[in-house]
Amino acid sequence: MTLLPLIFDGVLGFTLLWLAWQLLGSPDLFRAIVLFIAFGLLMALIWVRLDAPDVALAEAAIGAGLTGALLLAALARLGPPSETASLDNQGDRASVAEGGGLPFRRWLVALHLVLACGLGYAVMSLPSAAPGLSDAVANSLALSGVSNPVTAVLLNFRAYDTLLEMGVLLLALLAVWSLGSTPDAPPDDQPVGGVLALLARLLTPLLLLVAGYLLWVGGRAPGGAFQAGSVLGAAGVLLVLAGWRLGRRFAQLPLRIMLVAGLVLFMAVGLFVMLVGGDFLTYPHASAGGLILLIEAAATLSIGMILAALFLGIRPDSRADQ
Amino acid sequence: MSGLQGHLSLLLVVIPLIAAPIVAVLPRGRLPWAGALLVTAVCAVLAGMQLWSVVHDGVISYELGGWAPPWGIEYRIDAVNAFVALIVAGIAAVTLPYALLSVEQEIPEEQAPLFYASFLLCLCGLLGITQTGDIFNVFVFLEISSLSSYALVSLGRKRQALTSAYQYLVMGTIGATFFLIGVGLIYSQTGTLNIADLAERLPAVFDHKTVHTGFAFIVVGVALKLALFPLHLWLPNAYTYAPTVVTIFLAATATKVALYLMLRVLFTVFPNNFALGTPTFDLFVISGIAAILIASVYAIYQMDVKRLLAYSSVAQIGYMALGIGFASAMGVTAALLHLFNHALMKGALFMAVGAIIYRVGSCRMDNIHGLGRRMPWTFGAIIIGGLSLVGVPGTAGFISKWYLILAALEQQAWISVAVILAGSLLAVVYVGKMIEALYFKPASEANQSLKEAPLLLVIPTWILALSNLYFGLNTELTVGVAERAAEVLGATGL
User: Measured between CA atoms, how close is A203 to chain B, in angstroms?
Assistant: First the structure.
């Protein structure tokens, strides 16, 4: 009975390593990205096996889905491969490696192997029953306003970290926008095929529904703002691909407000409770559940908008042709 | 806790954080700058109040979300954090008035609100690292400060700014990942993320391999952020191609905060001289010596003044590494002193160079001939900053080198003494090279008609230049705080 899960895990682990090796060695960028997406999905499966469904959801949605979409979008903007790149495509991997300095690469691989062995050794010698804060969390769960321990940690016990992560996400968008105008992806200006438009029309309401469900269920079961936000972001990406753009009226201030709403509302709640007499982010126990849902709702909206905006890549208000 | 006083430490971090999105949505023009200026001024005042409060009333502890540590996040402020936070906030407050003209010239107008928003987030991240008493929270702030640094560097005018930012991003991300792996390993051994709690629980498992591995990962990760030789490769390009204001701010604060974090890890997180049982301190001495000698020689051969100063920064970080490497109270005091003094001298020097860039548009050696006569105030600041860099008595640089030599003599580390002196001689050469180009070379046709930089650039430059002199003569404040900070870190028991 215990053998089967072990074999399953073993196959999962080795496939993951094999995929990683393949994608690192792939001279063809498109193939590497596809492998990367497969890698992310497999990783999500492994998180499920490790009893971390929340992480699995995030990995599948952001790690595999959105990052993959971003990489594909970047590849599309790079244009057709140059001559050297196509030469690489024809040659086998060994000749490519030789072109890039074989001794250096070998040295690098050896270094990584040493690092991986050292890390593996350290992890193997961990105590089987790791001491942790799970008991402390379980004991205070009743006070947190939610019954999903992950949400309790993210939105209450360590809400400050999550607040800062909202800042990180916004910062990522600021950074992309700071890079200035990127050349627009060619498909943007072309009429979109019927299938894609139909798919977008069908899937978008469904994705909105799923996002709402994930947001709502987050208080009790795996889900929450980051998962819901990434589903919302996926809907946004689909719409962007289908050629849909925010109207001029919304591309300015309303968009910016939606982008910062999550962070600002989170902080506003944190500061507001200080007026009642607590420390920053100290929710009154009675209203904790409601406040968490409010924060998560705003965060979902902002995360979705930020992810979609990252995919678009340029500031919507800088598009002169709209 | 009640009133403003109780929330002081929190507000110091939260004000820039909330101001950043607001600044980002402000219309173009001078409004974003004014907003950022106000925030940095408030932060500097708050940081000053915090240091005063810590020195007089002792450690401040602030529980975020009202959850007690270890599972809640705690801010824990002692003399060390308060000191570093004041440096960061103070430098930001001096940099912002300078930023107005420099940013108007170097950054497209539509990007300016984003620039100031990123700047405030960077400030928030750096202050957060110093304030927090939770090691995972440190990582989150590290992410904020690093991401904003990459964004800020990429805004430089030349195309190389993009590749420099990318290089910085790759190296910085490796550093952050190492830090996170290390934190994960020590969490799995102790079940806590609170630094004070870790310090209590870690000694029981010190023999364990996992703890040693975690320690190694954390130290290497922070060393990358610190640009500790030979992990400094991102620094020269990032400092050279970043916008002037960003170079000033990052050179004076970012590596300093990383150094603070390193001290915390070496002495507080892993207490009871854990690090003495590892080769860490020897490596610091070797790395410090190599940095001082090699980076200084590199500095001499640079043709771009910003790049010259960037290599000099790598060398100066070497002095701090050497101070830590002595593993003594005196050594740590010297490292902390140099942390402060180097922020003053590099701040002043990069500001003065920025004033030249403002007028000339470049700071290549052959473009700045004879400018010393045309821009006497800027030139004066470069002389003061340069003398401080060399360590001439009467300047702040002398004080930290003096303590560093005392620390070396204490352990009869003659090689280190020789290296510190040789480093100063090499500094004479590269500072001399700048002065030669600025003053003794005849000015070119184009440079004949140049005027002194605007007051808005000269005044902040001189504030920092004069503080180099002030803290070179009045050492009571800096040495007192640094000694106290070394004591708090537990370095006295070494």
Answer: 32
Going B215 to B218 to B221 to B224, the CA torsion angle's sign is negative
Average pLDDT over residues B427-440: 87
> Is the CB of residue A161 less than 8 Å away from at least one CB of chain B?
yes
Per-residue pLDDT reduced to its tens digit, B249-308: 999 899 889 999 998 888 888 887 787 778 888 899 999 999 999 999 999 998 888 899
DSSP one-letter string for B6-46: HTHHHHHHHHHHHHHHHHHHSPSSSHHHHHHHHHHHHHHHH
Q: How high is the pLDDT of residue B294?
A: 92
Q: How confident is the model at residue A319 (pLDDT cuts 50, 70, 90)?
A: very low
- The DSSP 8-state label assigned to residue B263 in this structure reads H
**E-assigned strand segments in B202-302:** none
Q: Which of A141, A171, A273 to mutate to test the interface with B (most CBs of B within 10 A)?
A: A171
What is the distance between the alpha carbons of residues A184 and A321, in angstroms, rounded to a whole number?
11
For chain B, give the mean pLDDT.
86
This prediction's pTM: 0.89
Segment A125-172, tens digit of pLDDT: 776 666 667 777 777 777 777 777 778 887 778 888 888 888 888 888
What does the pLDDT average to over A196-202? 81
Residue-wise pLDDT for B345-364, tens only, equals 999 999 998 888 888 888 88
Q: What is the pLDDT of residue A93?
A: 43
Residues of chain B found within 8 Å of residue A174, distances taken between Cβ atoms: 24, 114, 117-118, 121, 148, 151
Q: What's the CA gap between A204 and A244, in Å, rounded?
A: 12
Q: CB distance from A317 to chain B under 8 Å?
A: no
User: Is A178 in contact with B154 (Cβ distance < 8 A)?
Assistant: yes
Domain layout of chain A by residue ranges: 145-322
Per-window interface: A 253-292 vs B, CB < 8 A: 253, 256-257, 260, 263-264, 267, 270-271, 274, 277-283
In a mutational test of the B interface, the residue from A160, A283, A285, A295 whose CB has the highest number of chain B CBs within 10 Å is A160
B64 SS3 class:
strand
Region B152-174 average pLDDT: 88
Q: Which residue in the set B14, B118, B154 is minimally distant from A267, CB to CB?
A: B14
Residue B395 φ then ψ, to 5°: -115, 165
List the single best residue of B67, B127, B136, B143 to mutate versus A (max A Cβ within 10 A).
Answer: B67
Q: Do A283 and B65 touch (CB under 8 A)?
A: yes
What is the rounded CA–CA span in Å between residue B219 and residue B213? 10
**Can you tell me the distance from the alpha carbon of B429 to that of B440, in angstroms, rounded to the nearest whole number?**
15
DSSP for B430-443, written as a single string? HHHHHHIIIIISPP
B contact residues 162-221, partner A, Cβ 8 Å cutoff:
162, 181, 185, 187-192, 208-210, 212-214
More confident residue, A121 or B38: B38
Distance from CA of B121 to the nearest CA of A (A): 8
For residue A147, give both structure tokens: 């019954």
> Is a pLDDT exceeding 90 seen at residue B123?
yes
Nearest CA to B389 out of B474, B468, B304 is that of B468
Q: Residue B3 — pLDDT band, cuts 50, 70, 90? A: low
Answer whether B494's CB lies under 8 Å from B328's CB. Answer: yes
B126–A contact, CB cutoff 8 A: no
User: Of A138-142, B84-88, B474-478, which has the strongest mean pLDDT?
Assistant: B84-88
Residue of B nearest to A162 (CA): B140
Mean pLDDT of A300-307: 88
Q: DSSP 3-state assignment of B77? A: strand
Give the whole-angstrom CA distance, residue B277 versus residue B288. Answer: 20
Considering only CB atoms, A160 lies closest to which of B137, B150, B181, namely B137
